[in-house]
Amino acid sequence: GLAPSQLTLTIGFGPSFFVKDGKDRFGIAAQKPALLADLPKFPNETMDAARSGGDIVVQACANDPQVAVHAIRNLARVAFGVAAVKYSQLGFGRTSSTTRDQATPRNLFGFKDGTNNLKADETDKLNSQVWVADGDGPGWLTGGAYMITRRIRMRIESWDRTTLLEQERVIGRQKGSGAPNGLTQEFQELNFDIVDDEKTPLIDTDAHVRLASPQHLGGIEILRRGYNFTDGTDGFGHLDAGLFFIAFVRNPAKQFIPMQMELSRRDALNEYITHTGTGIFACPPGLGDGSSTYWGSTLFA
């Protein structure tokens, strides 16, 4: 009785799908992309192994959360005896726009999130920053992308006790409009040269938007597609809530890893967040026409 609710499913394969404990589990170790390796340990993270990694990832998105839940439920049902769910995360309210007609959504800190995210119509940027090109790795991954997941716990109670001025300094944007500090419109380009009367940059040197920007990172960009989550409380009266960050990149070693290393070392936002789960997966290209095409057919053909 449920409508499709614009359900989409995205799948990917983790490093352990190819090799686990030194063993070639399914005879496909030679097909493992060199870039498909567990992410290094970064500062300011407390990883839960039970919420990290995995052989296969399935991301189900729908306008109705019940549709997404049932999609995962049915895939787990038909996989009984072959595969089992290691962990799952239910999210809501995407935290980045991917088309120009979408309003920029807000995260649980109340700020617009993903203003400068890559857009679906930016073909050149998607080709250079997201889609795996011919020659980047094994042929089965050409046209696909690497998915990075991070479960980010937000210290919401500490954030709520922080002044608006300090919140805007930490982020580098105005909470109401989403405009960069020192400017008036959300989509104006970041300007790191604007200073106050004391010659202090209005976008602080350790502000989140500065450290994550292509200008600061030598042109690095990623496609964000994360979601808010709330998982009750932690037993101490604090919300167990935050951002389930999802990003798609062409080369994790040249894009996500240097970006996250810079953020984990210097970002003022680190006072209010902790990374508690992680994963990396190689997502094959989308399905083509024909009844013989299936998820991962480029890998197993």
What labels would you give this structure?
single chain; alpha+beta; two-stranded antiparallel sheet; 10 strands
Describe this structure in words.
With 301 residues, the chain is α+β, with helices and mostly antiparallel strands. Helices cover 19% and strands 20% of the residues. The strands form 3 sheets. Strands 5, 6, 7, 8, 9 and 10 form a 6-stranded antiparallel sheet that branches. It has a two-stranded antiparallel sheet with strand order 1-4. A two-stranded antiparallel ribbon has the order 2-3. The longest helix is centred in the N-terminal third of the chain and has 14 residues, at 65-78. The radius of gyration is 20 Å and the shape is globular. The protein starts with 7 loop residues before the first strand and ends with a helix.
* Integer average pLDDT: 94
Rg calc: 20 Å
The succession of helices and strands, N to C, reads EHEEEHEHEHHHEEEHEH
Oligomeric state of the chains in view: single chain
Distance between the termini: 36 Å
User: How many beta strands in the DSSP annotation?
Assistant: 10
Gross morphology is globular
**Low-confidence blocks of residues:** none
- Major sheet size, sense and barrel closure: 6 strands, antiparallel
How would you classify the helix and strand content by structural class?
alpha+beta
Helix content: 10-25%
Fraction of residues in β-strands: 15-25%
Question: In DSSP terms, counting alpha (H) and pi (I) runs of 4 or more, how many helices?
Answer: 8
